[in-house]
Amino acid sequence: MKNPVHTDLQVTGMHCAACSARLEKALNLLPGVDASVSIATEKASITYDAGHISVDELIKVIQDTGFNAHPVRDFAAEKQARTIILQAQQQQFIFSLLLTMPLVAQMLLMFAGRHAMLPYWLQFVLATPVQLWIGAHFYSGAWRALKGGGANMDVLVALGTSAAYLLSCAVWQLNLEQPVYFEASATLITLVLLGKLLEARAKGKTSSALEALLKLQPKTALVERDGLMQEITIEQMRVEDIFLVRAGEAVPADGLVLEGSSSIDEAMLTGESLPQSKQTGDTIYAATLNGQGLLKCRAQATGSHTQLAAIIRLVEQAQSSKAAIQKLADKISAIFVPAVVLIALTTFAAWWLAGAGFSTALINAVAVLVISCPCALGLATPTALVVATGRAAQNGILVKDAQALERAYQLNVLLVDKTGTLTEGKPQVTDLLPAAASTEADLLHIAASLAQGSTHPLSRALTEQAKNQPRLQTESISELSGLGLHARIDGQFYLLGSPAYAKQQAVAIDEAAILALQQEGKTVLVIARDTTLLGYIAIADQLRASSRAAVAKLHELGIRVVMLSGDNQATAQAIAKQAGISEFRAEVLPQDKAALLESFKFGEQLVGMAGDGLNDAPALAAADVSFAMKSGSDIAIEAADITLMRNDLMSVVDAISLSRATISKIRQNLFFAFGYNALGIPLAASGMLNPVIAGLLMSLSSVSVVSNALLLKRWRSQR
Questions:
Q1: Distance of CA 552 to CAs 422, 558, 653, Å?
Q2: Residue 474 forms beta bridges with which residues?
Q3: What is the CATH number of domain 400-424+543-652?
Q4: Rounded percentage of the chain residues whose pLDDT exceeds 90
Q5: By three-state DSSP, how is residue 91 classified?
Q6: Residues forming a β-bridge with 262
Q7: pLDDT band for position 660 (50/70/90)?
Q8: Mean pLDDT for the stretch of residues 473-501
Q9: Phi, psi of 116 (to 5 degrees)
Q10: What pLDDT does residue 204 have?
C-alpha cells in the first residue's frame, strides 16, 4: 500500500452477522483495501490506498452491496440518528402489534377450548398491512442481499412469513379444506420487530461507558482574551490560552497549572477514586473535575488532541476490532442462511413425502426458517468486546484492540521491568560515601555535573539532589547504556557509573562495602577521577505500595512473574524479595531485553511484558501482549497493546482479570448461539415447534446474547 489512509464509516441496513460478513468480504475484494466490519458498533473500519480508491467509491461499493454508509459523525449526532430510527421502529412495532392482537386473541381462545374464529376476509385485512407494509423492509433487505450475492436474516423472515401468508390466501380464495395461518405470518413479523427493538436498546447500552466519557466534556471555558475573562465554547479554545477552572467545574483542556492549588478528581481518566493534589507546575487533563480552589492554567492540548479524546479514539478503535475467536462465527455466518434454506426445503420434502400433507409440511419448513438466528451468532463476540473495552476504560485500562484482550487471557509468563513498574520510578539519593580524596559536597557536585545531560532515572535523582548547586563545565561527555558515563572537567577524565564499569576502567573499589549497600536494595554509583576513587553514591527507588499484592494476585492467576533489572545481582535480588518475586534477571542491558523475552517463548507459552521506559519499547513490541504505564515514554505506550493510565502493577492484574471475564462471556454467548440453533432447528424440523413459538424464540435469542454481554458491567477491579 503506497498511500495508506484510514477511515471509519457508519453503516446502516445491517441486520445480522451474515450482513457484516458479506460487506466485509465485498470491501476486502477491492485492491488496496483492508476492512473490518462490526455488527455490534455498525461500523466499517477501513484502511485503503488513497491512490487507488476514495471514500466516495468505498461508500458506493457499500451501497451496491445493499447497505448505506456515511463518515462517522460525532457521538451525539450518531446517537440522535439512532434515536430517530429507534422511534420509527417503536411506531412500526406498536402498529403491527395492534393489527396482530385480534389474530392472536382468536388463537388463544381456540387453545382455551372456545371457537371464535374471525372471518377469513377480516384476517386478511389485518394481516396484509403487517406483511406487505410493515414487513416491506424484510423484502427489500432480502432482495439487496440476494442481489449482492449473499443471504441474511431478512431472507429467512421473508421466506417464512410469505409462505404462511400466501398459503392462507390460497386456502381462503380456493376454499381449501385446511387451516389458514394469517395469525402466524403477522405474529412472526411482530415478534421479529420486538426482538430487533429490544436488541437495539440493549446494543445502545453496550456503549454506555463511551457515552459517559463524552458527557464529561464541558461545553464552555473561561478564557483570558485581550486582558478580559471571556466564556467561550470548547471548540474556540486554542493552545497557549490562559483559562480559569473554578471549584466544582470540569477542566476544559489539558493544561499546566500556573497559579493556585486544588484537588482534581481524575477517576474518569485513571480509575483512581482518590482526588489528586494539583499545584503550580502540575498537569491537569480535560474533563477531570476540580474539587475546590481556583486554578489558573495554560492550555497545552485542546479538542481532539486532549488525553480524553485519545482515550475515546482508542476505545472506539478497540470496539471496532475483531478477536480471533470471532473468525469461527464469521465463517459459519457466511454459510448459515443458505444451509438453513436447504434444511427447510428438506424438511418440507420429507414431511410431504411422508404423507403429512402440503400444509403441515409447509408450516414445519416455515418453523425451521424462522427459528434459525444468525444474529445471536454474530453478536456473541463483538457485544462482549464493546462492553469490556468500555469497562476497561472506566478503570484506566486502554486496550488497543480485541486481539490484545484475547491474548491477555492466555498469558503464561509476565516479565516486569523493575524501575517505574515495580518501583515508583523516582530514585532518591540515600547515601553519600566520599573517599579520602573527596568530600560529600564535592562528590555530589561532580556527580550532578556529569549527570546533567542524561535522562536516565539515576541521573535525574542526582540532579534533583543537587538542584540548588551550580554545575561544572563538562566536555567530551559520553554515555554507555546500562554502564555509566564519562566526561572531561578542566581537562581531567571523570567517571560516573556502575561498579562493573569502574572496574573496567581500572578503578580500585571496595566490593564488600558496595555489596552491603546492594543487599539493602540500593543501586551504587562509583565516581572517579582518572583511576582515583572519589567515592560512592547509593540511590534507592521505593517499591510501589501495591506491587507485592499485585505480584501475589498474578501468582494466584497462575502467571509466572519474572523481574528484569539493569541492577547488579544483589540489588535486584533485594528488590525482587521485597516484591515477592522468586525469579529475576539482573544486569540486563536495555538492548538485550527483547532477546531475553524471546527466550521465554516456547511451545504454547504466551509471554507478556510490563514496562514504562523508552528502553522497554523493543521488549514491549516483541511480547505477545504488552502493558505500558502511562508515566512511561510515548514510544513505550505506542508499542504496547494495553496502556495503564494508573501507574500501578495492580492494573495489569485488572487487565488480565477483565480479559478472562470477557473470554468467558464470549464462550458463553457462542455456546448459547450454537446450542440454540443446534437444538431449535431439529425441533422445528421434527414438527415439535409451532412457527409462532419458533419466532418468539428467535427474537429472544439475540436479546439474550446481548443481555449476557451486558453482565460484564458487573466486573469489578481487583483492588
A1: 13, 10, 10
A2: none
A3: 3.40.50.1000
A4: 15
A5: helix
A6: 278
A7: very high
A8: 87
A9: -145, 55
A10: 67
**Coil, helix or strand at residue 604:** coil
H/E stretch holding 346 reads helix 326-353
Q: What is the CATH number of domain 238-301?
A: 2.70.150.10
pLDDT over threshold 90, residue 549 = yes
Mean pLDDT of the chain: 83
pLDDT band at residue 582, thresholds of 50, 70 and 90? very high
Q: Which of 241, 254, 417, 648 is catalytic?
A: 417
CA dihedral 376, 378, 380, 381 (to 10 degrees): 180
The reply to whether 417 belongs to the active site is yes
Homologous superfamily of the 428-540 domain (CATH): Calcium-transporting ATPase, cytoplasmic domain N (3.40.1110.10)
Ordered by start, the domain boundaries in the chain are 4-72, 238-301, 400-424+543-652, 428-540
| Model pLDDT, residue 521 | 85
- Tell me the C-alpha distance between 469 and 471, whole Å: 6
Helices 650-685 and 358-371 cross at an angle (nearest 10°) of: 180
One-letter amino acid for residue 244 of the chain = L
Pull the grid cell for residue 242.
490562559
Q: Is the pLDDT of residue 633 over 50?
A: no
Architecture of domain 4-72: 2-Layer Sandwich (3.30)
Q: 408 with 655: CB under 8 angstroms?
A: yes
Report which residue type is found at 237.
M
| 404: its cell numbers | 490484545
> What's the CA gap between 692 and 266, in Å, rounded?
52
Q: Edge-to-edge strands of the sheet including 262-265? A: 276-278, 262-265, 289-290
Check residues 148 and 65 and name the one with the higher pLDDT: 65
